[in-house]
Write a structure and sequence with these properties.
It is a single chain. By secondary structure, the protein is of the alpha+beta class. Helices cover about 50% and strands about 20% of the residues. It folds into three domains: about 1-70, Winged helix-like DNA-binding domain superfamily/Winged helix DNA-binding domain (Arc Repressor Mutant, subunit A); about 75-250, Beta-Lactamase (2-Layer Sandwich), CATH 3.30.450; about 250-290. The protein has helices spanning about 1-25, 30-40, 45-55, 70-100, 145-165, 180-190, 235-250, 280-290; strands at about 30, 60-65, 65-70, 105-110, 115-120, 135-140, 195, 205-210, 220-225, 250-255, 260-265. A hairpin with a 5-residue loop joins strand 8 and strand 9.
Length: about 300
Amino acid sequence: MATSESKNSIQVIERMTRLLDALAGHPETATLKQLAQETGLHPSTAHRILTALVHDRLAERIDQGNYRLGIRLLELGNLVKARISVREHALPFMRQLHAATAEAVNLSVRHDDEIVYVERTSAGRAMMRVVNIVGARAPLHITAVGKLFLMDDGPDGLLAYAERTRLPSYTRNTLTSVAALEKELDRITKQGYALDNEEAELGVRCIGAAVRDDTGALVAGLSVSAPAERMKTAWAGLVRDTAQKISRCIGAAVRDDTGALVAGLSVSAPAERMKTAWAGLVRDTAQEISRSIGYRG
C-alpha cells in the first residue's frame, strides 16, 4: 500500500515537471490543449495538476484555458541565486569576522516575510542554543537582518508587513508595534547596522549589516550572534565593514555613456584563494570597461 502511494506521488511530480517544462517553452501563454498534447497527458489530468500549480503560484491562469509560469518560480529562483552567489563570495569574509570575534557569524537572505539562514561559521566556545542554523527561518521583525529588509521596504512596506503578520511576540523584548519598529528602523538608517536585543531568543543578541549587489539592492544580511553577556557593541563597525567588503566583492558596476548600469564584473575563486585586496582591482577594471564604452562618470 505504501509503495503504491509512493509511486503515485512520484508520478504526479513527474507530470508536474513535464507541465512546467512545457510552459517554459512558451514565451507568452499556452492553452490547456497545447500543454496536454506536448506532455502526453490527458486534458483532465493536465487540468487537475495545473489547478494545483496555480493554487501554489507555480503557474498562472491568465484567462479561461491559458496558462504561463508563475511568479513563485521567480521568487524561488532569486532565492537560490542569492544563496549560491552571495554565499560563495561571503565565506572568506565570514571566516575573518569569526576569527576577530570568536562568535557565530551568519549569512541570511529574505524569503517572503522571513529570513532564511544560508551559511554560518559556528562559535568555538561553550554551547549556546541559537535559532539561526543553516536552513532555519525567522520573522523579519525579531532579527537584526530582518529589520534591515523592513527598513529597505520603506514605511508602506512596514505597514503591509505588520498587517500580514500581526507582529507576534517571541520574547519580552520583541518589538510588537509599528511605532516601535518605525523608531528602530530610523535608528538603523542613521547608524548603518541593526541590532537584535534578545528579541528572538532571551540571552542571545545579534548585530547585522546589509549586503548589497552592484545595483544597490539588498540581497543578504551578515550578522554576528553571541550570548548577551559576550556581545560587544564595538563589533558593530566591524560587522558593517565586513558586509561592505562582501558587497564590493559580489560585483562592480559597468555603466554606458548615459550612466546606465549595463553589466556587472566579478571575480570568483575557491574560498581559500579569495583575496579581499582584489576588490579594488575589480572595481578599477569595471571602471576601465565603463570608460571604454563611453562612460565619463
